[in-house]
Amino acid sequence: ALTNLTQEELLAWLQRGLRYEVLEGNVGYLRVDDIPGEEVLSKLGQFLVAHVWRKLMGTSALVLDLRHCTGGQVSGIPYVISYLHPGNTVLHVDTIYDRPSNTTTEIWTLPQVPGERYGADKDVVVLTSGRTGGVAEDIAYILKQMRRAIVVGERTVGGALNLQKLRIGQSNFFFTVPVSRSLGPLGGGSQTWEGSGVLPYVGTPAEQALEKALSILTLRRALPGVVRCLQEALQDYYTLVDRVPALQNHLASMDFSTVVSEEDLVTKLNAGLQAVSEDPRLLVRAVRPKETLPGLEAEDPLRAAPEVPEDQA
């Protein structure tokens, strides 16, 4: 039992299942293979804040890797969610029913956390695999329902929060049975991830999930610049001048939280621009490298003019 370990032994256990680093592009990476409970976090919380969390706080985005996390302690859920919850207001994130004791426990975010919360304007990506189970699944599900994180990887195992090993009679056979379940208030009270698993927003093989996550974050870092360029282009060139202010305001207020690909971005921008302008000619498209628009020369696609036929007729 972890409660019987000394602080040094707890620290050694924790470090075996915890990896962190700052990746290229100032992206924080945190891999957790076992979610510690309240008892461990109360003893080592300040150490984690000082030596792990503070190094990740300065990053522009965070990848939480739960691909190898097959379980953990329910009491650790509010700690993980609270550091990513954007505000100081408490939020009811789950309700756990325990069958043996016939008790129901509500899980809320913490009103205060040691150290600082991760910035609300920073992207968070959660990586999952077909082995991600139990408490890790609940964390992925909660963050997905809160729209606080983009889940990338494989559908999770659809396990249970707590398993109990039972002996069959006086034999040498045992079986494990789920004894507690999530009632999932963020999913409407009746929806839960047990049995079905957590479906990622972006499906990809687990071994490719980190690479995919980094490409998504690269795109999302470019979003402010894309919006700014569109606003400037509308201001300088769009002929329906009276509609420009409304278009610029709409671009500034658009929610890009679900954009994970160039195709998503093009679809969202076109739907928004055309709805405001009522102009089907106002179009955005993604141009791949070395691809040119019809009638433009490849050497200078932005400045070249269409070729004029020499034959006057």
From TrEMBL:
SUPFAM superfamilies: ClpP/crotonase (SSF52096). The lineage of its organism: Eukaryota, Metazoa, Chordata, Craniata, Vertebrata. It comes from the Eukaryota. Keywords: Receptor. GO terms for biological process: proteolysis. It holds the Pfam family Peptidase_S41_N. It comes from Lepilemur ruficaudatus. GO terms for molecular function: retinol binding; serine-type peptidase activity. This is Interphotoreceptor retinoid binding protein. InterPro entries: ClpP/crotonase-like_dom_sf, Tail-specific_protease. Residues 294-313 are annotated as: Disordered.
